[in-house]
Amino acid sequence: MPKLRTLAVVAGAALLARRAMRHRIQVSPLWPMPALDEPTSGRPRSRALRLLVTSHEEVAEGVVQLRVEGHDLPRWEPGAHLDVVLPSGLVRQYSLCGDPEDTSSYTVATRLVPEGRGGSREVHEQVREGMELEVRGPRNRFPLVAAPSYVFVAGGIGITPILPMLRALADGVEWRLVYCGRDRASMPFLEEIEKLGGGDRVTVVEGPPDLGVVLAEVPDGAAVYCCGPEGLMAAVEERFPGVHLERFAPRSSAGGAFEVELRRSGRTLTVPADSTVLAAVRAQLPDTAYSCEQGFCGTCQQRVLEGEVDHRDELLTDAERSDSMLICVSRARGDRLVLDL
Length: 341
Hints:
Layout: H1 2-27, E1 48-60, E2 63-69, E3 81-85, E4 91-95, E5 105-111, H2 119-125, E6 132-139, E7 149-155, H3 162-168, E8 174-181, H4 190-197, E9 202-206, H5 211-214, E10 223-227, H6 230-239, E11 244-246, E12 258-262, E13 267-271, H7 277-284, E14 301-306, E15 309-310, H8 318-321, E16 324-326, E17 331-332, E18 336-339
Parallel strand pairs: 7-8, 7-10, 8-9, 10-11, 12-18
Antiparallel strand pairs: 1-2, 1-6, 2-5, 3-4, 3-6, 12-13, 14-16, 14-18, 15-17
């Protein structure tokens, strides 16, 4: 009995100490840091899964298709993508191009970019059947909206998010696809796509397309979707300002220099015109979380306490952008930001 009393007294004292510590943190502006709400910094946006690579297949010149398998995988809809953590730790985003109803596997494809940042080369040369990969998601920033008709424009590997959309369209829905590539041998899934189009819905263009010709007649009210190289998307957006776009790379992160105050740390940094907030912050706080450095994964999301943000990411919702930013690509719209760091 005395032992039980002792344990009860110790537990009660610990609880009181915890409450006192919490109160002191909340009321004191200086100990140990300013009493702000809990930051959103570095929170993962979705649960990570470890999946087995069961297929690594070349489906066109320079294009590898990966199939990863698991059990009771989260469902997805056309336009969704996965974050794939490669063996080196690099994180890359790949559009899902398999069957959304299949909860046992995910399928993605990637083109080798010899002069890229290394992710595609790693998929092509180091990922093999039998190894495990970590994936996060799926997430969808390129959903298929309801519309009376559709016009799709795909450039090369940009066909991957559009292919599931074509499969999902109901019989009788009017649609057209302009599929551009260097040549037919380099264009993945071409045979299936031409069968889906029945011979008259799909226009295959080898080389740069003449958009004035291939998109001369677009029905009123049609939803226009485009995915591919930045030049192609910019040209389509110029013709159709309401186009739905899916980007492989972030918008430019260059801009004017500005200051960033790290409120919790009591530091003020200068972000040069040719650098990023992430680089400046990590020079002072090297443990700051980040991953893709392209504005896609959300790992570097930070809470903004003051200042106007020039958002350049492809992930955050309007609500999230009201008080946070992805510091790998977004910048200050003025000359100063204050972050909850």
